[in-house]
Amino acid sequence: MDISITNWCDKGCAFCYKSSTTLGQHMAFSDYKNVIDQAASMGTFQVALGGGNPNQHPNFMEILEYTVGKGIVPNYTTNGRGLSEEILEATRKYCGAVAVSAYPPYVETADTIAQLVKKGIKVNIHFILDADSIGTAINWLSEPPEFLSGINAIIFLNYKPSGRKIFERKMLRNSSRLDEFFNLATSPQKKLKVGFDACCVSAVFARTNASTVMVDACDAGRFSVYVSEDLKVYPCSFQSGLIEGDKLDDKTSFLDIWTKSQNMRSFRRYFSSDQCSGCNHKSVCMNGCPIFEKLVVCGYR
C-alpha cells in the first residue's frame, strides 16, 4: 500500500505530479491509524509512505511506531530535508528501507545517503529516468560515483507526463539510447544492484533477456493500492490528479473499495484485455500502463 501522509514539501520540483508545496495538507494521525487498522485486517504487510516529503509530517515518528505495532513494515521516500537525529533513529528502529529521491546536482542526494548509511539504514535511490537523464544513468551504471557506494540498489522510475510542467520531449521513449541502457541495467556484470518501477517493465520485457520470473507487470489494483492524504483511494498514485477516487469514510470501508470499486475493476479489466493482442510479451507485460500510453517503451506501440 502506498500512502501519501502529506502533500507538504518545500522543494518545488517542476516534475512533482502532486504539485506539493508548503501549503500542502497533512493526513490527520487519527485518519492514518484508521487506514492502517483496516490495512492490517486485510493482510497488508508493507506500506510505502510518501508525499510531499513524508518525514516532515508532524506525527511522523508516531506513524512509524503505530505501523510496526500493527505488524506492517513501513518504508518511505524522502528528498533528504528534515532528517533530524530523532527521525533518523526512528527510521533505523522501525523502517525496512528508505528511498532517497535523486536530484541534480546530487549534492543534497549524496549528503542524505551519507546520513542514512551512517545510521545503518537500508537505502535505495529513486532515479527518474527520462530522455535527458538516461545519459547520467548510463554513466552511473558504468562507473558508479563514490556517494552510491553504501546504497542497497538504484531504482529507475519512468518519467511520467504529469506535474507542474509537462515536458513531452523528456518522455523516455524519445531517447535513442534505450537498448544501451536496458541492456546495461540488466547485465550480470553491472556494478550496481538495479530495480525498476512498474512503468519501466515494458522495456525490460521487450528489450532485454531478463528472466520474467524476476519482473512483474503493473500491480496497481492487483497487488497494490494508493491512498492520498485526503483519504481518496486509487489503484495507482498517478491517477490521483485525473479522477476523483473512492473516498474512504465511515460509510465505505477499504475492503469495499478494494473488492467493489468500479475504478479498481477497470484496471483489472485493462490488464486482461486485448489491448496488445499479437505482442509476444502481452502475457507478462499485461498491456503496459492503464493511464499513460506513452509510458510504454517496448517498441510495439
TrEMBL record:
Coiled coil: none annotated. Keywords: Iron, Iron-sulfur, Metal-binding, S-adenosyl-L-methionine. It comes from the Bacteria. Residues 1-197 form the Radical SAM core domain. Its cofactor is [4Fe-4S] cluster. The keyword Transcription regulation does not apply. InterPro entries: 4Fe4S-binding_SPASM_dom, Aldolase_TIM, Radical_SAM_PqqE_MftC-like, rSAM, rSAM_sf. It holds the Pfam family Radical_SAM. NCBIfam families: rSAM_more_4Fe4S. This is Radical SAM core domain-containing protein.
